[in-house]
Fold these 2 entries.
Entry 1:
Amino acid sequence: MSTLRRVALDVLKPHDPPLLEFTERISAVERVDAVSASLIELDQEVQNVKLTIEGEDLRYEAVEAAIGELGGTVHSVDQAAYGEYVVEEQPTPQDG
Amino acid sequence: MSTLRRVALDVLKPHDPPLLEFTERISAVERVDAVSASLIELDQEVQNVKLTIEGEDLRYEAVEAAIGELGGTVHSVDQAAYGEYVVEEQPTPQDG
Amino acid sequence: MSTLRRVALDVLKPHDPPLLEFTERISAVERVDAVSASLIELDQEVQNVKLTIEGEDLRYEAVEAAIGELGGTVHSVDQAAYGEYVVEEQPTPQDG
Amino acid sequence: MSTLRRVALDVLKPHDPPLLEFTERISAVERVDAVSASLIELDQEVQNVKLTIEGEDLRYEAVEAAIGELGGTVHSVDQAAYGEYVVEEQPTPQDG
Amino acid sequence: MSTLRRVALDVLKPHDPPLLEFTERISAVERVDAVSASLIELDQEVQNVKLTIEGEDLRYEAVEAAIGELGGTVHSVDQAAYGEYVVEEQPTPQDG
Amino acid sequence: MSTLRRVALDVLKPHDPPLLEFTERISAVERVDAVSASLIELDQEVQNVKLTIEGEDLRYEAVEAAIGELGGTVHSVDQAAYGEYVVEEQPTPQDG
Amino acid sequence: MSTLRRVALDVLKPHDPPLLEFTERISAVERVDAVSASLIELDQEVQNVKLTIEGEDLRYEAVEAAIGELGGTVHSVDQAAYGEYVVEEQPTPQDG
């Protein structure tokens, strides 16, 4: 079977726990090697965050469960990379 | 004969299976070494996804069949690279 | 004599054979080491494709003949590189 | 447990201490290996500064405390990277 | 004395010989190691081409003579690099 | 204690001494390893210059004193990097 | 003392000597290791050229004298780098 190596998630989270604690908790999920979180937008009730998560054989269900336990929801899965390595996308003329 | 090393596809897929499972299934196709999938656009019924697939001697028919079994369709083949290595395109003044 | 190492072509082709088969056939031309094809535009009757072809001593006539046998025509030769290596163009203020 | 490796902060600070002394004091916080500070905007009373801080196992509380002792406040945590290495975010089509 | 290592030329040429043969002939000039030619613009009578030529001790007169023998003219010399190596220009605030 | 490794300064200077002599004098300040100066703007009385200064343990006071002796003033400190190495800032979505 | 390693000059020159001969003559100045010249603009009487000159311990007076002997004038010194190596400027938010 094929392994998940990178996933980019668009996440909505409450202000509490704050971004640092939130990200630390995701990075503690089994098989996660590294996580970057960037603040996209914030309003009074939620923060919109982009998470980029890498690992050698990520378990997405565990990542999603951890996000849910922290009060967050995955708004969309923006990118996923499976296989023996991560293919970087190349821009093509059709990207327009 | 010449081998297919990379192909970039513009794919329409239903919401189910979700992007992760969809991509994992493509990555399990024979000869596929790695796949990245990016969400381009989504509406109520379909997701528009860009797939970049690499392998040493890809069988496109098998990839296309797997996409079809998952309820997706290839809207267009945006890029294909054949040969001993992948030539990266260079921008030229005629690209406009 | 000097050798052709890379050529970028703006090609018009019918929908059949499709882009993958078309590109595979070009990659099978003698002395071609690698080909990338990108879809630029398509309408009901033709596809406009950018081909980037590399080899150690390319025979352009053979490439052009193969394109013609597949029903395609070279709309323009957008870039050509000859010599002991491929010089990458540098942007200059006059490009403007 | 997972370690904090990089954090990017949007900070408001008074004019005194000036940017150099302010940054030096942050760089003296335990576990901080390196800090860059850039001036974003300044008005009569405050400076808006972007701080990028790296270390092997950063203690954010200590960084935040040092900023507070210098009269500054963290306006937002713009980016955080945890884990075995720093994942650089890749742009995705959904970034808009 | 100092040696010419790279020159970028803005050239007007007739349609015949075509770009490939034209470029091959330039690449056959003594001391030329590599040439890239890009099509900038074409109208009914002429093609406007950017030539980038490299060599260890280029003889510009020989290059210019070859262009003239092929019916072309050098519209402008856009860039020249002399010396022990090629200095790449860095953008400066005054370029703007 | 932590060391200053790079500082970027927005400087106003008179026309005399000219940019080259001015920059040479800054580069002669103790602990300065390298300086680049770029002209941003000039009017009849002053030149606006961006100075980027690197060293292993820069003494900012000495740099500022040298600028003052040459008739210049530091308009703003635009960037400062302290620590064991120079952290390059990464763009974040909040920069926008 | 500190050494000049790179200088970028905005130069006005007559059409004669042409750009190639002009650049070659500058490259023959003592201590100049390499020169690139780019055409910025030309009108009936003068050419506006950007010169980038590198060397291990450049003598600017000799460069300027050579430009003057060739009928040119230095309109502005756009960049100068002194020291043990060339610091490349980093963009900062204050660059605007």
Note: Helices of chain E lie at 19-27, 60-69.
Entry 2:
Amino acid sequence: MFTLGRLIRSTSTSNIIAKRPLRLQRVSFVRPFTHIPYSSMATSKINKWVDENQSHLIDRLAKAVGIPSVSGNIAYIKDVERMAEFLIEQLTELGVKAETRPVGKHQLDGKEVDLPPVVIGHIGNDPNKKTLLIYGHYDVQPALKEDGWKFDPFTLTVDPEGSGKLYGRGSTDDKGPVLGWLNALEAHKETGTELPVNLKMIFEGMEENGSDGLDKFIESEKDKFFAGVDCMCISDNYWLDTKTPCLTYGLRGINYYEIRISGPDRDLHSGAFGGAIHEPMTDLISLMSKLVSPQGEILIPGVKDLIAPVTKDEQEKFEAIHFEMKDIHDAIGGDVTLTNDTVKTLMGRMRNPSLSLHGIEGAFSAVGSKTVIPCSVKGKFSIRLVPNLGIKNTTDLVIKYVNDEFMKLGSKNKCQVVLTHGGEPWITDPNHYSFRAAHKATETVWGQAPDYTREGGSIPITLEFANILGVNICLLPVGRGDDGAHSTNEKLDTSNYIQGTKLFAEYMHNLAAEQA
Amino acid sequence: MFTLGRLIRSTSTSNIIAKRPLRLQRVSFVRPFTHIPYSSMATSKINKWVDENQSHLIDRLAKAVGIPSVSGNIAYIKDVERMAEFLIEQLTELGVKAETRPVGKHQLDGKEVDLPPVVIGHIGNDPNKKTLLIYGHYDVQPALKEDGWKFDPFTLTVDPEGSGKLYGRGSTDDKGPVLGWLNALEAHKETGTELPVNLKMIFEGMEENGSDGLDKFIESEKDKFFAGVDCMCISDNYWLDTKTPCLTYGLRGINYYEIRISGPDRDLHSGAFGGAIHEPMTDLISLMSKLVSPQGEILIPGVKDLIAPVTKDEQEKFEAIHFEMKDIHDAIGGDVTLTNDTVKTLMGRMRNPSLSLHGIEGAFSAVGSKTVIPCSVKGKFSIRLVPNLGIKNTTDLVIKYVNDEFMKLGSKNKCQVVLTHGGEPWITDPNHYSFRAAHKATETVWGQAPDYTREGGSIPITLEFANILGVNICLLPVGRGDDGAHSTNEKLDTSNYIQGTKLFAEYMHNLAAEQA
């Protein structure tokens, strides 16, 4: 799953102009695939093997979790390398032609070091089969026992109370899903089942720390390693709740802004100067108050008009999502939702833009009291973007509005509005054959149709792959909504790990069988 | 001069009710003093001695500055004690009956230690003379050479460029003024001049760290050590500019508030929840924007109506102040004053209330970007109080208004408004005989009439003395507006130190001569 660090990976202090126009991914296939019929016999063999080898598969996850591959801390640099090697060994054993590839250097804790390499691999090269690209990451967030973990975070621990929860850093984000693919490959190998698709894979070791180097790698390998990819599957997000599998077909983008107000050239004492000067905080708070209403309505003229209208298909998909208001009340720890309508709530989180005021840099922010007039303050807010609110058209509206409102204040201070980061929204076709395959696989494995969700946050690497490779991407989560990626006591339920392995196998077989 | 720490010395999270009603100090004297005629012969002898003994007097200041009596750091606890002993020795030599008195214990850097003692002394007990109480402090702010000092901060250094500036921590705040009194006593002793008043003195060692223990000491000694005090003089503030002496007769008070908004029980990711919930920051920013206009106008209904009307005498005193807009533009480093009218600017700083928005606790405040929805935020603002805006009547208006405005938002979050600190404004009669005496002394020593100023900030200990002893207090500064108390390269001009000594002597003689 994405990190905040990664959300904000590309930063510019100038007004960014969207490099790529926002578009729905529409991929046309000119290559006729041989129709490979779906074989329930093949998958039932696989499923049987998976069920019978659960402890072996959990042991694989235990080995991976045991390697503290924290990408954001130089102290773990060898562990990150070790994790890449572990994957290469495992993949090679499973018949995958796998290798690590360097993606450049970066500054880590003040030292210039190699970026963690990407692990790439491929198995199968049959022109009659579809070629599926999978992505995952082998690095993890930091974790310390003393942060509040019940068990050592780098020792996979089966819940002694019998819930089946597998605790450990990386269990769900993203080692469990990555190994799910390896497990599926092993199941094919051990049961003598032919892989129904050509499989290409890329596992990065820098996801939790900004995915540096990955976009350049994708770009440079577009027509080499990535040549011939028909569609892509990423398993790095989660179910919306704890009981309903889902397929994810959209992500909101984000524009992060700073309103910078400056006045005096030094911080002043409010006793000495309060009542005599234009205080930057007064101007800033006034401007920030004009961005969004307490009902969550974005007050910037023109923004609402840009939002793509809701289609019938979308409406139906949102109405079908298994979701109760209790779910969000539990998740946020309080009954402070804008509405008690489930569909409006889901659309608010997933398909409508939102504007959040995050805080102020330069003002007093500590506990206690300080009678300062800050000389220069930066108000931070972001707008979650959706089709057709892009980086540029939204920014044009924001800058004009804030500057116009500032002029109305009649202040002698200076005001500047800066887009510090822009990430486009992403949406793909949820009726694509890859989604149909994932849908059927979910029904087979979990006995129920999946919800069709969008993520309210951004997963920038999805956008990079979509833009550069131009393929449909199905986000197919393994873990549940309460797995606690990035938190203490991160876990993956045994059932999700085991069923997730089957899901991937079923998905590949359905993918092969679906008419492109 | 006061510290921020001291401004906020009494903190309560409940809504404080003003303990003492706001009042002008009106002191009636029932005791007829013998009229002691002003003797220019006496003071000219004294002035001559002072001029001839400048290096001796500067040496005294050098000894004092050489003792790093930093009250806010346990590492200097012995130096603070040593500074008290130094004063006792000096005072005793000058014929003052001086002693240290304990004022309790406090926590310093995590250890419970004795508070620095107060040094009290008295000289003269003639019922026919007025009794003057003087206050000063012997502790200083921290200072390290590496903070940007040109010279060692604890070695008094005469500017080698010949400006006459005496650099050193405590030179102007407040060792120079304290020693000015000692110098004046020595001049009387050495010239065989009778002291025209009975003099009581209290020098504390905790001013820069909250004056803890002092209020209780004043209260407990009200009818003992402080019995018979007729008026008080404090030299612990500064001229408004660098060339015009002033007398200070008022201080603004301060009410410090927090608006606390809470919603969810944990911080949330704006990707996951933006657009679905009432965000506490949105409510807070909306409320904060309704407190003060960009033109500095307080928007809380009823506040303006409470302000005492400007009297003709006040108006004249403000109009007479030597002040140019350039002075404040230089002081703040920019032309962002609300007006270019000097009187309006001075009244804005000194006699009118002001409302400053200081910052927000709980929101994102660092450099960079973070897409957090803070679950609980505290907006901090303060109102500078003036007659007749007291702690309680102002707070009643603030709480009602903020709560009313919050109700209008239609938010499900919770809102609480809390007064975290209250300090009443203080004003005294600038036509009192003590001010008349200080006025004449200023004309004699500096060759010009003083400005009559008020401080925009608070000096809480002034209020304590005024309330408990019920006497007129003349704030009679020695240093200039650019002395840089609390800053690096704090200095006192030699002329201010030497003339300040004469000013105190002249003041005492004029005080004796003035009709009560």
Note: Chain A touches chain B through 85 residues (CB under 8 Å).
